[in-house]
Design brief:
Distance between the termini: 9 Å
Structural class: mainly alpha
Radius of gyration: 16 Å
CATH topology: Arp2/3 complex 21 kDa subunit ARPC3
Helix content: over 70%
Order of helices and strands: HHEEHHHHHH
Number of helices: 8
CATH architecture: Orthogonal Bundle
CATH class: Mainly Alpha
Shape: globular
Number of strands: 2
Strand order of the largest sheet: 1-2
Number of domains: 1
Length: about 190
Amino acid sequence: MSILQKFKNSALELSSVQTLCICSMMLALRIVLGMFTNFTLAIVPFVKIGLSFIPVVLTAMLYGPVCAAVVSGAGDVLSIILSNPTAFSIMPGITLCCVIEGIIYGIVLYKDDVTLKDIIIAKALVLVLCSLPLNTLVLSLVMNMPYFTLLMYRTLVLVPFAVVEVFISYFMNKAVKRIDKKYLGKNKRLS
C-alpha cells in the first residue's frame, strides 16, 4: 500500500463510529500517560521519558497516520493543559514533533503484518527525524543551552530507551493482532 493510500484509508477510518470511539479512548489514555508516566532522570533533567507512546503506536497500527497524528498531537496539548492549568506551557514545536511522530508510526505500522523490523524502522525514524534533532532544537532554544551538548545528553538517554519502546511495541503488536481479528473485525474495515 502506498503512503498516499495509507493517508486516504486512515482518513476514511474516521467515518466509522467504532474508530472514533477507540481513537477517543486512545486519546484519553495518551493524556493520562502523558500526565502521570513521564519522568526525568536526576542527572539529565531535560530528557523526559515515559509510556505515552503506547496509545500512539496502537492507534497507528489499527487506524493509520491520520488517526495517530491526531491522538499524538491532541494528547500532547491536552496533557499539558490538564496537568498544569496555571502555567500554559505548550510548546508548538514539541506538539508538531508529536504530530510528525504519529504520522511516521502510522506510515510504517499501518498494515496487516507488522514485523519487528517494521517497529525498529518506525522507532529509528522517530528518533532520527523528531526526538533527537527537532525536539532538541526546540528545547535548546527554550532553555538557552548549546544544541550539540543537549543533543549528546538526549542521545545517551533516548537511544537505550528506544530499545525498550521497540520491545513494548512488538509485544503490543502481537496482542493487537489477536484483538483486531477477534473484536474489531479488520477484515470488515478498510485494507
